[in-house]
Write a structure and sequence with these properties.
By secondary structure, this protein is of the alpha/beta class. It contains five helices and five strands.
Length: 300
């Protein structure tokens, strides 16, 4: 059994670790609040742009664009896939990174001809250590995503798509469903199926206005879709960042609870060992005193 010195050292180590996990929890909480604000600011723009694309489809039902499957076309066409994988720069966030990587690996199993575009140091290290080639790695940090970075990512992916090097583009990210829930998703960004912009319950009143597209409807879509893709990627980056902080808060809170439990067990063990040592010392003193009395009796 460990002595009091070893137990005290262990208690001190756990207390120091608990200070670190508590600090990480507070930092993640602050980052989460800031990121949620950014997410709330992003979604209205994203939804408004999607609404305008819906309006185009309601106005010109036969519109054709390279960003969409042909009318009646299948969404299961083969070809080279591009997959943007969004992970964190570090671990200590529960299963956050593993869930995103699992989605990417499932896509690779479905279509081996998939090129990976990775954001986040954790994802880069995972794919490199497992010998999975990365087509392009965005070397800036996954922390504090910006619209400028989203535009850089979308510009590179759209360039490959326009040159027919990629037939489909997917984004693997973590979606924040609620205050305490999140889920890794693999979403196809391009090409879109027309039903994605379908409006089954049309709540707007029919408008007598006639929309004119200059120079034509396809040119308008070609102008809007890059902004839509950039907005989607930006939203995915922020969503993933929010989920990372939420996952880290959960992990650090669990670590704090485990540390409290361990400290309680160590304190109990320390008290038992100390009590046993005191009892042994009292026993030894009593035995010594008894021996001395017996010795004096014999000499007397």
């Amino acid at each position: 059994m460990a002595g009091t010195k070893e137990i005290k050292t262990h208690i001190k180590s756990v207390q120091e670790t608990k200070k670190i996990t508590n600090a990480m929890y507070l930092i993640a909480s602050t980052k989460l609040q800031r990121a949620r604000q950014e997410l709330d600011n992003t979604r209205p723009y994203f939804e408004a742009l999607r609404g305008e694309i819906k309006r185009i489809f309601r106005t010109v039902k036969t519109v054709d664009s390279r960003y969409f499957y042909p009318v009646g076309g299948s969404a299961d066409q083969e070809g080279t896939y591009g997959c943007l994988v969004i992970t964190a720069d570090k671990g200590l966030a529960g299963a956050y990174n593993q869930n995103a990587i699992k989605q990417a690996l499932e896509l690779l199993d479905q279509n081996p001809d998939t090129k990976l575009f990775v954001v986040g140091e954790y994802g880069r290290r995972f794919f490199a250590s497992h010998g999975i080639p990365i087509e392009h790695s965005f070397l800036y940090t996954a922390q504090n995503p910006t619209m400028a970075r989203a535009r850089e990512i979308s510009a590179l992916l759209l360039d490959r798509f326009h040159r027919r090097e990629l037939d489909k583009i997917f984004v693997v990210y973590t979606d924040m469903g609620g205050a305490m829930s999140y889920e890794a998703r693999c979403t196809r960004v391009l090409p879109f199926h027309r039903t994605y912009f379908a409006d089954p319950v049309h709540t707007e009143r029919p408008s007598a206005s006639v929309f004119e597209f200059f120079p034509d409807v396809q040119a308008v879509l070609d102008s809007m879709m890059p902004s839509y893709v950039s907005g989607f990627i930006y939203s995915a980056l922020i969503d993933s960042f929010c989920c990372e902080q939420q996952a880290r808060m959960t992990a650090m809170d669990s670590a704090d609870q485990n540390a409290e439990k361990l400290l309680g067990e160590l304190s109990l063990q320390y008290n038992r060992v100390r009590q046993a040592a005191i009892t042994q010392e009292i026993t030894e003193v009593s035995a010594g005193a008894r021996a001395q009395r017996q010795k004096h009796r014999k000499e007397g």
